[in-house]
Amino acid sequence: MLSLKLPGPIVTHDWLMSNFDRVKIIDGSWHLPSENRNAKAEFEQKRIKGARFFDIDEVSDHSTDLPHMLPSVEQFSSYASQQGINEQDSIIIYDTKGLLSSARVWFTFRVFGIDNVAVLNGGLPIWLKYNLPTESGVLEPKTATKFSAKPKWYFVKSMKQMRENLLISKFQVIDARSTGRFNGSELELRPNLPSGHIPNSLSIPYNQLVSKSNSHQIPMLKDDKALLSLFHSQGVKIGNQCSIVATCGSGISACVLALSLELLGHKDWQVYDGSWTEWASNKDNPISKGDS
Where, by residue number, does the polypeptide cross the bilayer (predicted)? Predict the structure, then answer.
């Protein structure tokens, strides 16, 4: 397969159909435990034809109690090798909700050195709406490759770096959780975890980045103009004026922020992998309430 340069971090269903045989497709679906859904089982019931599956919880760091932290270099390399992925491949990622966890998988691939990767806007719902090719059943093993990840850790922020930033304000922090969880008026999704936010961070709930106000009535990332207006309205310094770090509850929806920044041409972004679950679990970390 000849390498195909992708048009950007987002592709449409029309583009994917036109280039179907020149890319490798990954289902990056993931669901909250409270949803009682099994992403792998749903993948076997119906998926885009030829897709592979990326299990966000399985391909993660199991040495920590924090949910779905980034895997080790060895873990990711093993996954990519088993799925028949090469460094020169063009990768398209989708999910079953339209656009959410696919952004997390996009981020993971970027961290481990795969830059030619994009997300299908509208995911499986848009694919099904237009009756595009699907398949079902247990996935047959792929011909293995010898993938060797070349990690780019500058995409990732640690709790130590987040603490240091409280003193030096080197980068902006944007929180993708709901407004209520951010300002402390709503309970967190995880038991015994206080709500609130990292001091001096800004609030842009991820669902403000996606919209059903399109002809498809399917959750899709908003267009550049709407995204830029949203970021500017919240005081985000778009345009590589400074580093911007995305955070959320456990590192999933923060990646929708990162994907949006990439789409707008802001390359200096990072994700706080441990996010609120790690920050609020440490009693030494300060927690702010209210809208700022």
Answer: none
